[in-house]
Amino acid sequence: MTSFSGKVQEEANQPVGSNRSTAMEKVSFVRNVSQVFFNRAGYFQSRYKTFGKDVYGSNRWVVLCLGLLNVVLLIAAVSLGINCAKVKESSINVTHSSATQPTSEYLHDNHSDVIEAGEKLKKTLETAIKNHTLLKEQIEQKKSINDENQRQVETLRTEKTNLQANISALEGTCGKCLPGWNILNSSCYFFSYLESSAVKKNWADSRADCVRRGADLVVIDTPEEQKYVSDSIQNMKTSNRLWENGFWIGITDVHSEGTWTWINNVTGLNPRYWMDGEPNNHGQKEDCGVIVYSSISPWKTMYDGPCHNPIYWVCKMESR
């Protein structure tokens, strides 16, 4: 189908007075009124009737005006499109710039915050290291103090044990005997070995030591006392030779050979207390009595020895 503008163009291109005028349908006269109609062939045509005359306008000018109008509209549309594109691009750039600037500022601020947080963490770490070092030094000091306290505790425990032993000894003697003395019935006994195993004396010096302590060399009055003294010195030995492990007792025959007298002037000694073959006054020089421990018989524990020999001794005193 041919468009309306095409028909107008074709109509405008045909010469005036051609066969198309014969095919046109006449209309009545109307003054100053423009009529537009289609002819029988379907073409657009207009004419003016002025003062009873038909004046046919040239369609060529109309088409030209329409074309110019189309061109103007096209130019206007293109310009408008270009302007819209520019405005859109400008808007995008502005938006991008607006979006980029806060992002850059945010990143800058965030980077500063990270650096500041890092510095704070570094300072915190340094403080923690210093505190750890200080705490370690304090732990070492406390460990040294604790070790010293442990040594003191051990010393105190040892002292406590000794005190308890002394208390037991005091309880055993009921306070009737001096420290270091043992009690039997109503008498107190001092064994020099217990004070010092390295000190030995002759008979005369041993007796002098007992007197200095307020006592004298032991005088054995009963079998019970004989057994007690003998059993007490069982573990007080410094030599494998029996004669070197004896203790001086308070009996002698220095004044009269063969007459054994106790220092309390009591004469006589039960013969069963002498070891077999004793006293024998070997070499005519054995005038002082000695007691030892015997595993064979608790009664046969005495012999006579040279008074100048250095050995241990036993003191005896009445309890308080």
UniProtKB/TrEMBL annotation:
Keywords, alphabetical: Coiled coil, Lectin, Membrane, Transmembrane, Transmembrane helix
Sections of the chain in a coiled coil: 122-173
One Gene Ontology molecular-function label: carbohydrate binding
Transmembrane segments: 61-82
Signal peptide as annotated in the record: none
Protein name listed in UniProt: C-type lectin domain-containing protein
Domain of life of the native organism: Eukaryota
A Pfam family that the UniProt record links to this protein: Lectin_C
Organism: Anabas testudineus (Climbing perch)
Sequence ranges assigned to domain C-type lectin in this UniProt record: 184-316
